[in-house]
Each structure stands twice: as C-alpha cells, then as structure tokens.
Amino acid sequence: MDLEFDTRNEQFRREVSAWLDENAPAGRLSPPATAEGLRQHLAWERRLFEAGYAAPGWPRRFGGLGLDLWGETVFDEEYVRRRLPERLNKMALIHGARTVLVHGTEEQQRNWLPGVLDCSDIWCQGFSEPDAGSDLASLRTTGRLDGDEIVLNGQKTWTSNGAIATHMYALVRTDPAAPKHHGISFLVFDLRTPGVEIRPMRQLHGHSGFAEVFFTDVRVPLTSVVGELNDGWRVAQTALRLERGSARGSHTRLVAALDALTEAAARAGADRGLRERVGSLRAWVFAYVRATYALIDTVDRGGDDGVVASVNKLGLSEIQTAIHDLWLEVLGDEAELVDELGPDGELLGLRRDYWHSRAQEIFAGSSEIQRNIIAERGLGLPREVSR
Amino acid sequence: MNTAFSPEQDELRTSVRRLFENVVPAAVLRQLWETETGRSPQVWKGLAEIGVPALLVPEEYEGLGADELDLFFVLEEAGRAALPDAILESCVLAPILLAGSTADGLKRRWLPALATGEARATVAFDGARAVPDAHLSDLVLVVDGDQVVAYERGEVTVRPVPSMDPSRRPASVTARAGSGVRVDGAPVARARAARLAGSAVLLGGVGSRLVEFAVAYAKVREQFGRPIGSFQAIKHQLATAHSRNELARHAAVGAMYDLAHRAGSSSDTAVLAHVCALEAERESNRVSLQVHGGIGFTWEHDLQIWLKHGKSLELGYGTWRETAYAAGAGTVLSGRSEGGTR
Ligand SMILES: Cc1cc2nc3c(=O)[nH]c(=O)nc-3n(C[C@H](O)[C@H](O)[C@H](O)COP(=O)(O)OP(=O)(O)OC[C@H]3O[C@@H](n4cnc5c(N)ncnc54)[C@H](O)[C@@H]3O)c2cc1C
User: Fold this and answer.
1) Phi and psi of A296, rounded to 5°?
2) Arithmetic mean of pLDDT, A28-40
3) What is the pTM of this model?
4) Beta carbons of A310 and A244 less than 8 angstroms apart
5) Is B307 part of any domain?
6) Is A243 a catalytic residue?
7) Ligand 1 centre from A342 Cα, in Å?
8) Of all helices (H) and strands (E), which one includes residue A353?
9) What is the Cα–Cα distance from B130 to B138, expressed in whole angstroms?
10) Do B223 and B109 share a structural domain?
C-alpha cells in the first residue's frame, strides 16, 4: 500500500497548477444559457483545449493527453479547488463521449469526439422521460427503422444543458415487441435535425439548465447507433456507471464545502454541540476522500467498480447534504439575507450549492436506487417482486 | 497510489481468521464466560505461532519490526470474531510505548517476552477505570498525560468492573505505593493515535460482521410469504449500514497508514477514523438487531455476543461526544477544515 501520488503525478500537478493560475478566468462567468455567458464559456473551453487540458484522460489521437485516472484526478482536483467554471461539455466528458470511447466504432469516435473536445459540439443526455425516471427501462421514445434511418418520436425531460446542446446521446425503444430491457438502442445525434423541439425549463434554484426535448418524426442515420442495435441497455450501463462512479473532483468539492462550513462555524463562535457535528462531518469527508482514491485505484487497475461506485455515490450525497444543512443552520438568517442573485436571477454561491446538494440525491440514480443496487447486487438480497 | 494490501498482509489475515474460527467460535466464547480468566490460552498461543505479538517489536528485541498497517487485518479479524483478548493493548500499544522509549532496561526485559507471547501487557490511559485484560497481564503500562509508568503484575491490585460485554472483563488498577518504573521518552502521542485508530479497526470488524449476520438472516427468514430481505425497508437499512461500514473502513485504513508512514498527521486522522467507526458500528448494531427481530433479543441467539462487544467498544475507547468534539474543535477554532488531508 502506498497512499501518495507518485512523483510523475505531482509533477503534472505543478504544471496544471501553474497553467491554471496563469490562465484561469478572473471572476465569475455569466450563465451559459445567455448569449454572453455562452461566449465566455466557449472562450474558456477553447483555452483549455489549446493547452491540451480539455480532457487529459482521452487518447492523444482525439486531443487528450492520454493520462491514466490518476492524472485526470490531479487535473480535476486542481480545477475544482479553484472553483473554476463548470465544464460546458461535462455530460459528454464524464460519461457520454466516454461511452463512445468504450462502445463506439473507430468511425464514430473520429466523427464525434473532436467536436466534444473543442466544444464545437455540446452534448446532453437524453435518458429520462416524464414516465421513465428511476424506472429508466420503461422509456417510451420510439425509434422506427426506415431504410438506413431511424425515425424518432417521443419526449425527453430534465435534460441538463438541453437548451445549449447541439447533440444528444439518448436511449430510444427500437423494438417495441422486445422485453422491457431489450429492444432499446443508444444513439448519438444532432439536435438541429428537423422535428426536434427544445423547450428550456429552469431548475428550482433558478438556473436555466434544464430542457424538455420533443421529437416528431426526427430522422437520424442508422450510423447513430452506438454498439449493436437493440443492445442499448448494456451500452447505457457503461454511461450510468461512469456517471455515478467517476470522482471528477467530487471529493475536492466536498472538502471545499466543509471548509466553508468550518469557517462559518468559527465565525459563529461554535458551541460544543456544533463542534461535535462539524467534527463528525469532517470525519466522513476524510472517509470519502480515502474511498474515492480507493475506487480510482480499483478502476485504474481494471477492477469492477459496480457496487463500490454506488456506495460512494450514496455516501457523497448523504455527507454533502448534511454539510449544507448544517451550514444553513449555522448561518441562520444571514443565509436568508445574503444577496446571491446572479445576472439572470440565478442563485450563486452558498444557496446554489445547498440546493445542488439536494439534487445530488436525485440525479445519477437517486439514493433509493443506489440502496437497491447495493442491497441486491452487493449484498445479494432478493429482488423486489414486481420487477 | 496503491490502495491494496500486500499478499503477505492478506495471508496474515487468512491465518488469523482461521485461528479465530477454529479456536473461539461463538459456542466457545459462551463457555469462556464461565471460566476464571474468560480467556482461551489457545488463542494467545495461536497468535504467537503466527507471529502477531512480535509484529511491532523491533528486530533487535526478537520481534519482526513490522508496522501498524500490518496489524490492520489482525484487529479487523479480532473485531469480526468478537475476540475479547486485549490484542490492541498487548500487541500494539505496549510495543509502541516500549519500543519508542529510551528505557533500555525495560525494553530488554519486556519486548522479547511480549514478542514470543510469553508475557501479556495492557495499557491504562489517564485514570481509566476499566482497563482491558488487566487481570491476566504481566505488565501494566499506566499513561498519565505524557508520562508512562510500568508496573509488574505483583505491583498492582486489580479489581474487576462490570462491562456491557461479559467477555471483556475489564478491571480497575491500583498501583502499590512506591512501585513501578518510569518509561522514559515513551511516544505517548503515537500510542494515543494508535489506540483510536486501532479501536476504529476493531469496531469496523464488529460492524461489518453484524451486517453480515443480518444479511444472511434476511435471505432466509420469511414473512408474508417471502424473504424479509426482499422488503425495501429492510434492504435499505442494510445498504445504509453496509455503506457506512465501507466508508469508515477507508478512513481506518487511512489512519493506520498514517501511523505507519505519516506520523505527522496520524493523531488527527486517527480521531477522524474513530468517529466514522463509532457511527458506522452504532448504525450496524441497531440495524442488525432490528432485522433479526425477536430472535435476536434472546439470550440463546449468538447475535448478542456481537451486539454487546460492539457497544462495549463504542464506550471503551472514547465516546462519540469526546471524539467528535476532538475532530471538530481545533478546526472550528482555526476556521480551516483540512478535511481532505491534501
Ligand atoms: C439536477 C438534475 C439534473 C438532471 N439531468 C438529467 C439529464 O441531463 N438527463 C437525464 O436524462 N436526466 C436528468 N435528470 C433526471 C434524473 O435522472 C431523474 O430525476 C432521476 O433518475 C429520478 O427520476 P424521476 O425524477 O422520474 O423520479 P422518480 O423515479 O419518479 O422517483 C421519485 C421518488 O421515488 C423514489 N423511487 C423511485 N423508484 C423507487 C424504487 N424502486 N424504490 C424506492 N424508491 C423509488 C425515488 O428515489 C424518488 O425519491 C436530472 C435530474 C436532476 C435533479
């Protein structure tokens, strides 16, 4: 056992740090859903891209640095530590395009991946539907085969970045006669195709991050299918695993939240009880950081992260919500009064983070779904009757 | 970074687990309640044969010169077995205090004897009223602030005190006036960290075993025509307890690693690991009995052995209130959490 980053990674950390310190945008960018905000974000993404930092873990032939997971982790830690802008293409970088790296053909990879890296394309994830959330396999959006095209009809919802995306990776039912988990295909397609209608929705904390996406006879080429036709459920498992399993700086974000809580508690002149509660949360943050490194190590060595990823995701959600809850409590009416409205009526800073922590318990598989996975796949308990 | 234990460490785990399974299964633990010492001499003999008491003793004193991380599995298995023997005190804390001291006479006299398992030791911290295994220890190290005094068996009076766990047999220790030898230069801070981190590992062993018992029972116990493990209310409690145990275990590994390789941060991370272990075990303790229902509340069912062992460990090495306060106080005062340790 050796719980240190090796010298190569520490060297990379120094390089990244120096570059970020030199190049990071000063101050906050406007939200990407505004024209000005999108311009600012694209400019920042371009700088990252030109420096080779758009996706350090991707193969060099697609513009990455070909680093292993530790290299990526170092990059994410330094990036998140500085609270730099959320990556515009995070859905693609973390899971969508990565799934294409695993399951896509060489041609698909060559066609799609460069656009993700330089942000000339922005991807969103079209999994959820109004009647298919946790029960994702009950999705109803159909893809009817017609020659060398697939014709889409249906609706996706809660689509993060839907309003600014140019591409979607989605699950659609391509064989209505097949059993529930079969007959689904995983597609990547251009949202600027006729028949696609995007209706932006705001999120509860004011962010214009969501969209509903409607499809009416949308024709996409058969070459959009990633993996085998009707084998999309299996392909989606890769995406879902990447979504809940990848650390992507979550541990660093947790430390930052704990720092803010600690500072607030110090200012409030914490009594004994509060110090105990902060102490407990600090302990769990330490545990989560160590668990994150262990998970990275497992995946890096080609091990199975299945249930471990769920354990970590559940832990992250619980610890994060508890930190933010206590933080609000410590701040009291100060949290109520603080003026944190951004340019478009969005919440910034503390209150945004608080609500985000609440969303964390829902997206990427709710905490209940993670518990089901842990209990059934991890502990081997019998499945529920009706599934 | 490499988070895996070595093959040798895995092997040690296998040997220790086999020893405990063979020598002190639940039925034997119950029989030991009725004996005078409450201890199976075969346990200590077996541990000595495997080399456990020698691990932390330096080679020049006939030990193996290993480090705290090498004891991780030993302690975890001891927790899993609800083993009452004071392994933490005799095989970890006493060797740390003696080996790191400048008391050459004491080192020559005790370290080789501890290493072979001929002698057993215990450690009493800061006026503790319940010292583990004082009744059969040849050496009692009494820690008070940053001072340590060593007493031989004949120099102390040992009075049993009640414990939540009938196996543990703690005792109060009173030294005869004018007896004892100062252990000069003993690394007390390190021993304190090892005590918290080590007991976190013990707690983790108990907690994960408690969940395992409940999972096994939930698979076979049927109500309403199906296994209770198919009810989500049961499943989710078990998943939650399991997850906390898993995260707490990572903290405990981190703390033991720091003891072995990063002395500077070991006091802090030992506290953190202990808090996680306490919370995870407490949850596992609650869930395990709940899932067992009425049968778990009978004297005849073995679950009680682990329930009580866990509770007694929860109280015996610093309670949640003390430890969580220790984890939070300093950083709240400074306003810096240093939570991620990086
Ligand atoms: C901030 C945010 C961003 C999102 N971004 C995207 C995106 O980009 N693309 C996308 O496709 N989706 C996205 N989603 C949607 C997200 O994946 C779903 O909200 C999530 O899967 C839950 O589905 P649902 O909302 O339909 O809730 P439901 O599935 O209806 O669940 C409602 C409640 O019931 C519980 N529940 C459901 N089934 C069970 C069960 N079997 N056992 C016990 N409890 C159960 C749930 O845990 C939850 O508490 C996003 C959601 C949020 C909040």
Assistant:
1) -60, -45
2) 90
3) 0.96
4) yes
5) yes
6) yes
7) 27
8) helix A349-360
9) 17
10) no
Last residue of a domain, one of B182, B208, B231: B182
Domain that residue B296 falls in: 188-329
CA A154, A158, A161, A164 dihedral sign is positive
Same domain for B171 and B23, yes or no, is: yes
Please give the number of the atom of ligand 1 that sits closest to the Cα of A134.
Answer: 29
Q: Span B261-274, mean pLDDT?
A: 94
- Selecting among A78, A243, A346, A361, the annotated active-site residue is A243
The pLDDT of residue A107: 97
Residues B37 and B94 in one domain: yes
Instruction: Give me the helix-helix angle, B263-292 and B303-316, nearest 10°.
Output: 150
Of the candidate ranges A345-359, A373-387, B57-71, the one whose mean pLDDT is the lowest: A345-359
pLDDT per residue as tens digits for the range B129-186: 899 999 999 999 999 999 999 999 999 999 999 888 999 999 999 999 999 999 999 9
Q: Domain with B65 in it: what CATH number?
A: 1.10.540.10
User: Is the separation of the CB atoms in B304 and A229 below 8 Å?
Assistant: no
Query: Which residue has tokens 């998140």?
Result: A80
How far from A210 is each of A137, A344, B72, B143, B196, CA to CA, in Å? 21, 15, 48, 61, 47
Ordered alpha helix ranges (H), chain B: 7-23, 26-33, 41-50, 72-80, 87, 94-99, 104-116, 188-220, 232-261, 263-292, 303-316, 320-334
Residue ending a domain, among B124, B155, B182, is B182
Separation CA A351–CA A82 (nearest Å): 19
Å from CA of A367 to ligand 1 middle: 10
Sign of the CA dihedral B170, B176, B180, B185?
A: positive
* Ligand 1 binding pocket, CB closer than 6 Å: A 124-128, 133-134, 158-160, 359, 362-363, 366, 368-369, 372; B 232
Is B339 inside a domain boundary? no
What's the structural domain count of chain B?
2
- Amino acid at the residue B283: E
DSSP symbol at A128: -
Other C-beta atoms lying within 10 Å of the C-beta of residue B153: 15
Taking residue B336's Cβ as centre, other Cβ atoms within 10 Å add up to: 13
